[in-house]
Amino acid sequence: MPIVPKLEPGFDMTTPIEDLPLESSGIHGMLQDYYGFDPIESRMFNKFISDTALIESESGTINPKSSARGIYQFMTTKGKGQNAFQTALNRAEKTYRNFGEDAPEWLHQARKHDDPNLLSEAEQRDVFLANLWKRKGTDKLFRRVVEGDDKAAMELYMKYHHTGETHKPTLKSARSIYSREYGYSGGGLVRDSYGRKLI
């Protein structure tokens, strides 16, 4: 039976988005500080993260058809060039170094157990963000996503996270979730992917 992602306190799907905390720690917090997001941009940033989690793990965090695991469905296949999770962990460690921080112990342990599902929601989010941020060409997309650009959200997801063969149901789901009706494009904020009210 698939494991349903467990959201941390303060991040349940019924909480109005304006009541969600803006401050965060780890890579999530580092990137918000780096970009200097204002409150609305921070909420759009968090919206992109929660939308991507919804697309990737709406059927659970264990994919019975592949080695994809966790909220963001990182591949864990053994062998050279196959383990996207280990690559993402490398990028997370480099991100910590970029910001003058030592990599936390959970990251070192993750290299050994190789299972995204053994990480907390916040830890998985940090690995996901670092994996995107350390890739060439994503900086401008981060900046456009927080301005409400749904095309940037799609590109950031499809080109730099999903990356594999285009799966039509996934593409359809991503287009729906990153679409204008959910608040992207032109800043017309209405509701996020969980139906939470946006400011």
Outline the structure in words:
The protein has 199 residues and is mostly helical. It has one domain (28-182). It is 48% helix and 2% strand. It has helices at 26-35, 39-57, 84-98, 105-113, 121-133, 139-145, 150-162, 168-177, and strands at residues 68-69, 74-75. A two-stranded antiparallel ribbon has the order 1-2. β1 (68-69) and β2 (74-75) form a beta hairpin. α2 (39-57) packs antiparallel against α8, α3 crosses α5 and α6 crosses α7. The protein is globular, with a radius of gyration of 16 Å. The relative contact order is 0.17. Mean pLDDT is 78; it is low at 1-17 and 185-199.
Count of DSSP strands: 2
Give the domain tally: 1
What structural class should be given to the helix and strand makeup? mainly alpha
Mean pLDDT: 78
Question: Radius of gyration, rounded?
Answer: 16 Å
Q: What is the helix tally?
A: 8
- Along the chain, the helix and strand elements come as HHEEHHHHHH
Sum this structure up briefly.
This protein is mainly α and 199 residues long. Helix content is 48%, strand content 2%.
Furnish the topology, listing elements before pairings.
Layout lengths: L25 H10 L3 H19 L10 E2 L4 E2 L8 H15 L6 H9 L7 H13 L5 H7 L4 H13 L5 H10 L22
Antiparallel strand pairs: 1-2
Which descriptors would you attach to this protein?
single chain; 199 residues; mainly alpha; two-stranded antiparallel ribbon; 8 helices; disordered C terminus
